[in-house]
Specification:
Strand content: 15-25%
Distance between the termini: 17 Å
Helix content: 25-40%
Radius of gyration: 34 Å
Oligomer: single chain
Number of helices: 11
Shape: flat
Largest sheet: 6 strands, antiparallel
Structural class: alpha+beta
Strand order of the largest sheet: 1-4-3-8-11-10
Number of strands: 15
């Protein structure tokens, strides 16, 4: 049975195939396109850095920007200043990583696709390609009107039965893959080039610089920031698409593993050290690291186990991210706790409410004790994180004490919800008649008072905040 995650994966693959093109190992790796690949795909290719402007720009994209400013006479609808120069297509992309001390080289894998015109019959001439910077002139179609439909049918060539159709013609893709060893230069920021074999002019450019230490020494001593770029240095071609590197992809490997990038904003000397939300996020995501940053495109790690070492990073033209799954009540079921609203609506007294919801607070307190034990057992935790953890545990215990009282008085709160509900409005059947309002009188022991409804809402929110549990998923 196909799951929702598999369906989403197929949709993502279809989107990548439509916008960028096939990747290594895909069934369409040697595809035959009926149209110029520069016009067939929207992104994912690198143009030669020395090509003419019409080969490195997109006239249609400039028209869309100019058209967005056209409009009205309001202040917000003013026409913005038009760009003096056309927007150029990318000629390079890269990755930025942190490498530990002692690493002298990285291993790079470069993949791309080259297209060439293919016509087995040798009858059709290859279409011209002057690039996207010049608009393609659209000529009106002309039709010859025959003297009669019968004469037109007689002029059409007849295809004999059993005759094979002519082979298709178009732009054939040739998948390419090359390995390059990148020797890391000195940490002085200077660029060093490494040619890509049998690529016609592609090259890798690397640079390195030292990284200063923070107050908590989260980065190992001797860590360097390394940038690796893939540059299209091919000479200009007669047809624009012939010099482009389509579906360009760069993968960089480090045998010792890349250094994870910590988030320094929530530390003692960080820019948001006094922001409570930043302190909580810094504590909760203290084991979540960033390993790579894309330059001119997105970057992502490859097959990194939780808390493990990342040894491979790669470029990505269409980035994606996993989202945690919020479980249904069946997934969040707790022993001895009733979470269904239909069952809770049938509560008749305080004892029934305590029997249905009393265990909820016990489970919550057990979870708090578990978190407190993990924090106490973790060694090397920074002082600002310890302070935030203790404050969160204190607030959680306070919420548990309040929730115990809320659970015991849940039945009374539900009765208050019925009593403080808006009055019922009824209408007579006859047209033109006045309306009649019907309200439920309050008992003498429950007087109406200001703020009772808001107190009920806050009490219900405190009771309901622990009714779900989040479980991770792969998609």
């Amino acid at each position: 049975m196909t799951t929702s995650a598999e369906i989403r994966g197929k949709l993502v693959d279809a989107l990548k195939l439509d916008l960028v093109g096939p990747w290594p190992g895909h069934p369409f790796a040697s595809e035959l396109l009926p149209e110029n690949p520069t016009r067939w795909y929207l992104t994912g290719y690198l143009v030669p850095e020395t090509a003419p402007v019409q080969h490195r720009s997109d006239a249609d994209a400039k028209d869309e920007v100019d058209a967005a400013g056209e409009g009205g006479g309001t202040d917000d609808g003013g026409t913005p200043d038009k760009c003096a120069a056309p927007s150029l297509l990318p000629s390079s992309m890269g990755l930025s990583v942190l490498v530990p001390a002692g690493i002298t080289k990285l291993h790079a894998e470069v993949t791309w696709g080259d297209y060439h015109w293919e016509d087995p019959t040798k009858e059709a001439e290859e279409p011209a390609d002057e690039g996207l910077g010049l608009k393609e002139e659209i000529k009106p179609e002309t039709y010859e009107i025959p003297e009669s439909s019968a004469a037109a049918l007689q002029d059409e060539p007849r295809v004999k039965a059993g005759t094979a159709a002519p082979p298709p013609k178009g732009f054939r893709r040739s998948p390419r893959l090359e390995l390059v060893e990148v020797v890391l230069p000195n940490a002085d920021g200077k660029l060093v080039s490494f040619p890509v074999p049998s690529s016609g002019g592609l090259r890798l450019v690397a640079s390195a610089r030292p990284i200063s230490q923070d107050s908590h020494s989260r980065l190992p001593k001797g860590t360097r920031a390394v940038c690796v770029f893939l540059v299209n240095g091919r000479p200009p071609a007669e047809r624009a698409y012939q010099g482009n590197a389509f579906q360009a992809h760069l993968q960089v490997k480090c045998d010792a593993g890349f250094v994870p990038r910590p988030d320094l904003r929530g530390s003692d000397d960080g820019s948001r050290a006094h922001d409570w939300d930043e302190q909580v996020a810094d504590l909760q995501y203290r084991r979540a690291f960033d390993f790579v940053s894309g330059i001119g495109c997105a970057g992502e790690p490859v097959q990194v186990p939780e808390g493990g070492t990342c040894r491979v990073v790669q470029t990505c033209w269409i980035p994606s991210a996993g989202v945690e799954f919020v479980g249904h009540l069946d997934d969040a079921a707790l022993p001895g706790v009733e979470l269904g609203m239909e069952a809770l609506a049938t509560l008749a007294n305080v004892a029934g409410a305590r029997a249905k919801l009393g265990k909820l607070v016990e489970h919550y307190r057990a979870w708090i004790d578990l978190q407190a034990g993990e924090v106490a057992a973790e060694s090397g935790m920074e002082s600002n994180r310890q302070k935030a953890a203790k404050e969160l545990i204190r607030r959680a215990r306070l919420a548990a004490d309040r929730s115990w009282w809320r659970a015991s008085s849940c039945w009374r709160l539900m009765m208050c919800a019925k009593l403080f509900a808006p009055p019922t409005v009824r209408w007579r059947d006859k047209p033109g008649s006045v309306r009649r309002r019907s309200t439920t009188p309050l008992p003498a022991r429950w007087p109406r008072r200001r703020g009772a409804h808001s107190s009920l809402v806050s009490s219900s929110l405190i009771c309901a905040v622990f009714t779900t549990r989040r479980t991770p998923t792969a998609s």
